[in-house]
Amino acid sequence: MTLYEKILTIYPELINCDFAFGPITLQDDGDGEAYIAKWEHPSLTQPTESQLADVTGEYLEPTSSRESVTRRQGRLALIDVGKLAEVEGAIASIIDPIERLKAQVEYEADTWERSNEFLQGMWALLGGTESQLDDLFTLAATK
């Protein structure tokens, strides 16, 4: 079991965004031994070596993510991952006024759906992956 999987077993509420965008950094210096290089999670304490050593068994990846969240939840999640300004800037930079208006309507919708083509396209335009979008929705659902 990898260090990442052990940490997720101890703290199942963590998501990829916690590692990919922020407060937790795992590092492997090429010797095959990963370690926690940074732990700045606002509410969870760094697991001890003893806690990590006690984790055994097979890690089971979560199979579901949220399919829809409120606009408020989505915006709070975007703030947490540092993408809110980028999204709003990308919408503002759309040259065609009709397309920009359509984008604003999608962005201002009361509910953001994971399957929405505009949302998926905007996330990809900002360099995000499908997995990161799943993580973003999971994070948003906690808001």
Structural commentary:
- This protein has a two-stranded antiparallel ribbon. Strands 3-4 form a two-stranded antiparallel ribbon.
- Helix 4 crosses helix 8.
- It is elongated and about 55 Å long.
- It is mostly helical and 143 residues long.
- The protein has 8 helices and 4 strands, in the order H-H-E-E-H-E-H-H-H-E-H-H.
- It folds into 2 domains: 52 residues, Phenylalanyl-tRNA Synthetase, Chain B, domain 1, CATH 3.30.56.60; 73 residues, no CATH class.
- The protein is 48% helix and 12% strand.
- A hairpin with a 5-residue loop joins strand 1 and strand 2.
- The mean pLDDT is 85.
Helix run count? 8
- The sequence of SSEs as H and E is HHEEHEHHHEHH
Number of strands: 4
**Strands ordered across the widest β-sheet:** 1-2
Quick one: biggest sheet?
2 strands, antiparallel
Regions with little confidence, pLDDT below 50 for 5+ residues: none
Mean pLDDT: 85
Beta fraction: 5-15%
As for the number of domains, it is: 2
- The value of Rg in angstroms is 18 Å
User: What's the shape?
Assistant: elongated
Helix-residue proportion: 40-55%
Structural class: mainly alpha
Euclidean distance between termini CA atoms: 30 Å
Write a brief structural summary.
This protein is mainly alpha-helical and 143 residues long.
Topology:
Blueprint: H1 3-10, H2 16-20, E1 24-28, E2 34-39, H3 49-54, E3 68-70, H4 71-80, H5 84-92, H6 97-107, E4 111-113, H7 117-125, H8 130-140
Antiparallel strand pairs: 1-2, 3-4
Helix pairs in contact: 4-8
